[in-house]
Amino acid sequence: MGQGLSCRSSHEHGLFSAVQTGDLETVEAFLERDPTLLHHTTVYDRQSALHIASANGQIEILSLLLERSVNPDVLNRHKQTPLMLAAMHGKISCVRMLLEMGANILMFDSLNGRTCLHYAAYYGHSDCLQAILSTAHSSHVAVSWGFARFVNIRDGRGATPLHLAARQRRPECVHILLDSGALPCASTGGYGCPGSTPLHLAARGGSLECIRELLAWGADRLQRDASGRIPYVVALKHKHGACAALLNPSSAEPLVWPSPLKFISELNQEAKELLEQALMEANREREKNILKGTAYSLPSPSHSDSGADDNVSEGSDSELCCICFEQVCTIEVQNCGHQMCAQCTLALCCHNKPNPTTACLTPPVCPFCRSTIARLVVAKIKSYNDIDHDNGDNCSSKTRKSRRSRNFSNEGSSSFKGLSAMGSFGKIGGRGSGRIAAENEWVDKP
Ligand SMILES: [Zn+2]
Ligand SMILES: [Zn+2]
């Protein structure tokens, strides 16, 4: 930033360096003396004070400038807005303030034709990315453009924010984008190698975590770029051995997040996190098996997941899942109220692998009573207080107890065997297929 600040006058120079360092008093003094300074820019890059404040995260100065009714979308030499610079440098408070002041998220720079969303994804600032997406969701952009179209917006060379995040090894951004409806199979025009998908670019960047995310959201390992290469070949070429092992079309397929299911798309945040965590754990088990015996020892399980395995099988007073008998029930099916663990819930939902070509997907039913699943919620942890205070709830401890006994007895021993044959994900992964061998035995039963 600093380099572009050659001085036209000492005042200008003084103002810009005060903005850069966050010297509020000096900035105020300069503007008092000469209010027109507000509209001056640096000589070469034509950065305004607003650009400089945004790029340097000087929130107080930014607030001062915006109060004086400066256009939040003022452009520099490269047609970059202050919002783009704030997103590039990860200055989240500035991003938020600019968005609140109505900064336009649909501006394109003249360097690569990129938007603020591209900047946030490229530089890996997931908080900024999230803030921009939330604004897009609730603003006119969603109405006039469509939210999904905004998430998949392309730069001058056909790259979506997901392409950039995958190429730059930004797994958190990859996750947020996929979760917001970014298309995992979109191919670029000219960015990277023509026809590259996000998976090709992740293979090139060599990020195992990005590849894991993309695969779990249904990215296709067999899709070819314009020169006919699948992502596996790209990973090999760039000597990312572990990535190549996962991308090898002959290695086990991962479980894919069942996004087309209605009740999955309507999950509340808490239940969603539980299930996503279960999905990633299942896929990590699968990775271990793929990488076992190869030259690539498994990188220590993702550090970003805080305590993923810590509290799963603890709490002896909680109810054990009646399907696997290994995990605690954490998910409740509504409206019937049956409970199971996140892993088994996921196995149930991933039974039908989402396939874009088959429009109609048979939604799974409750494995205990076969009723339609209206909603999945996080099961309430039972505490001794429940007995007295649970009256208003449609799921009192009394009915829960009877439900539990029903889980064990009434369902008939034959289908129950099928259920327990699913076992835990660890075992399923161990078979190397990543698929649930016993699934048809019970799901297809009348
Ligand atoms: Zn279970
Ligand atoms: Zn049920």
Verbal overview:
With about 450 residues, the chain is mainly alpha-helical. The chain has a domain at about 320-445: Zinc/RING finger domain, C3HC4 (zinc finger) (Herpes Virus-1, 2-Layer Sandwich), CATH 3.30.40. The chain is built from 24 helices and three strands. A three-stranded antiparallel β-sheet has the order 2-1-3. The longest helix is centred in the middle third of the chain and has 23 residues, at about 270-290. It is globular and about 75 Å long. The protein starts with 9 loop residues before the first helix and ends with a helix. The structure holds zinc ion (2 copies). One zinc ion (ZN) binds near residues 321, 323 and 341. GO terms for molecular function: ubiquitin protein ligase activity; zinc ion binding. Pathway: Protein modification; protein ubiquitination. It is an enzyme of class 2 (transferase).
Q: Uncertain runs with pLDDT below 50, 5 residues or more? A: 1-7, 301-316, 384-446
Strand content: under 5%
- The largest beta-sheet arranges its strands as 2-1-3
Q: How many helices? A: 24
Organism: Rhamnella rubrinervis
Keywords: ANK repeat, Coiled coil, Metal-binding, Repeat, Transferase, Ubl conjugation pathway, Zinc, Zinc-finger
EC number: 2.3.2.27
Enzyme class: transferase
